[in-house]
Amino acid sequence: xxxxxxxxxxxxxxxxxxxxxxxxxxxxxxxxxxxxxxxxxxxxxxxxxxxxxxxxxxxxxxxxxxxxxxxxxxxxxxxxxxxxxxxxxxxxxxxxxxxxxxxxxxxxxxxxxxxxxxxxxxxxxxxxxxxxxxxxxxxxxxxxxxxxxxxxxxxxxxxxxxxxxxxxxxxxxxxxxxxxxxxxxxxxxxxxxxxxxxxxxxxxxxxxxxxxxxxxxxxxxxxxxxxxxxxxxxxxxxxxxxxxxxxxxxxxxxxxxxxxxxxxxxxxxxxxxxxxxxxxxxxxxxxxxxxxxxxxxxxxxxxxxxxxxxxxx
Length: 313
Description:
Blueprint: H1 14-30, H2 42-49, H3 55-58, H4 60-69, H5 73-100, E1 105-109, H6 116-119, E2 127-132, H7 134-146, E3 154-159, H8 166-172, E4 182-185, H9 194-206, E5 213-219, H10 226-247, H11 266-272, E6 275-281, H12 282-288, E7 304-311
Parallel strand pairs: 1-2, 1-4, 2-3, 4-5
Antiparallel strand pairs: 5-7, 6-7
Helix pairs in contact: 1-2, 1-5, 4-10
């Protein structure tokens, strides 16, 4: 179903379902022979919801059947797992670096099934604000607590759509804009129209005291190239149709959820506002963690930049 201005979702629908895809890739990486990351809660979420498109990443038997039907999908599936593994490692290291620098105020925008509040070794006194749709936050908190888990920082959930006045809700929940903070917008920006992307970062900067940190993965150059988008969608539609037959259920068309629009380059935009910025392409991020893009899968992922920035003190 295409996006609308006031659409909403729970964890198995629309944008919510993408969080399960990320969890499935994290589970596959965590359970691999030489994992880059460890997310013990990813499998917990998958077990709680049952089958969906996410199952093809985390169920070896189903993955084997899909590869048998679509042999060229093997490298694409591995690339998705590698993408999520390196992305997770990037954001984990970002937050731990901010914590080591003394930042004790963390904001995770569109937190989805990000379990960092529950699994990272946060220093005493850290407050983590998680913002997302009410049903998504409820599913995550209920599932983890039923599993016996507890947050490792003081967790403040803010159930709100980011198209609403989330800065007001954040401050009403106790966020202090005069203190340094660490922000993440992970797996979020491509699901926002270009105008909403600009507003998001304007709001973050306006709430960031000197010494604040920010990390995001954002559309890279060529993200909305019409020919590349067409090829990606054709491949995804074929794979989705095959997977739907294997699991006998309707599968969300993720290609309908994002906006292939011309966008403001986030890295240069932040530099113009006095932030110190580091930007890596996806191939550069893969190389950072000693991973390579599998043959034939070079165009399987939209061009992506990984941006980390600090507001100068």
